[in-house]
Amino acid sequence: MSNYVFKESFAGFKRAKLAAFTSVTALTISVLLLGVLARFAFNALEVGQSLRSDIDVEVFLMDMEESRIESLRTEFAGFEPVEAVHYISKDSAAVIFQEQFGTEGLSLANLGFLPASLKLQIHDEVETGVIVEMVGEIQNYRGVDEVTFNSQLLELLEERMDLVISAGSGIALLVLLTALILVFNTIRLTIYAKRGLIKAMKLVGATNGFIRRPFLLEGVFQGVLAGIIAISLQWLIFRWIVPHYIPQFGVLSWPMGHWYYLTGAMVLVAMIMGYFGSSWASRKFIRESTVSN
After folding, report:
1. Which residue, 248, 264, 268, is CA-closest to 256?
2. Helices (H) and strands (E) in the chain, counts
3. Radius of gyration of the chain, Cα coordinates, nearest whole angstrom
4. Which one of 25, 34, 126, 203 has the fewest beta carbons within 10 angstroms of its own beta carbon?
């Protein structure tokens, strides 16, 4: 029985060569687009997270005793959005100012007008609204002179990251749907070519489930073949084409830090699309061919 299933699953490639070629090509392009999109989206989100982690809340302090500074530091560290609190003394502020402005800032730094401050490092997942609310609360603390926080930049980053996710998800769904429809049509043509055999098998007692198995396996094989081709094309694109024509994109990292996560996911997605496309078509048209015959 298993030999028959495997034999018939490969026979489908011969009976509808053009349709099988079209299906594998569509799956390959779909999975390749998904892989390229995933890699670019991952790197875009990674850059966004890196920029977001550089946005801190800085609390400038009035002149006060060390005990009060330590008290504020401890209290701010207890805020839920805060990951860590770093104290910057007046002397340290002068050194930082001089490093940023060079010799031109030396005379100003020596005047001692720079206040001490507490720099609050924020967790990456915290929403902008929560941070803004916290900043408003901090401004009311005794001894706090001013609080700086680039909320506009953070809001812009969040908008861009949401746009990347939304656009990427929409494109991915469109690509998946297109591939499924093409696999569906391929299996439909194969079933049509075997309609006489299907009728004969029904007459000798074969169940719909048994008749469907070769078509399901054919869809999986198409997915495996498409996944392997898509991986090869992606390697070619990111190894030779992108570094040559767009050098700045030649250093894109792999999602999760390793190549096999994305490539494995590409093959798996291709197999799943092939399976569901063939399942959809075989379930529909085997039943219809049985009724019509």
Report:
1. 264
2. 11, 4
3. 31
4. 203
Strand (E) or helix (H) holding 21: helix 17-53
Q: Give this prediction's pTM.
A: 0.64
Tens digits of per-residue pLDDT, 88-111?
Answer: 887 776 666 566 555 544 444 444
Identify the H or E element spanning 121: strand 117-122
Using the 8-state DSSP alphabet, how is residue 116 labeled?
P
For 60, the 3-state DSSP assignment is: strand
pLDDT digits (tens, 9 = 90+) for 187-197: 677 667 667 76
Burial of 256 (0-12, 13-18, 19+ CB in 10 A): exposed
* Burial 41-72, CB ≥16 within 10 A → b, else e: bbbbbeebeeebeebbbebbbeeeeeeebeeb
Q: How many CB atoms lie within 10 A of CB 252?
A: 18
Rounded CA-CA distance 86/116 in Å is 11
Q: Report d(CA 19, CA 50) in Å as an integer.
A: 46
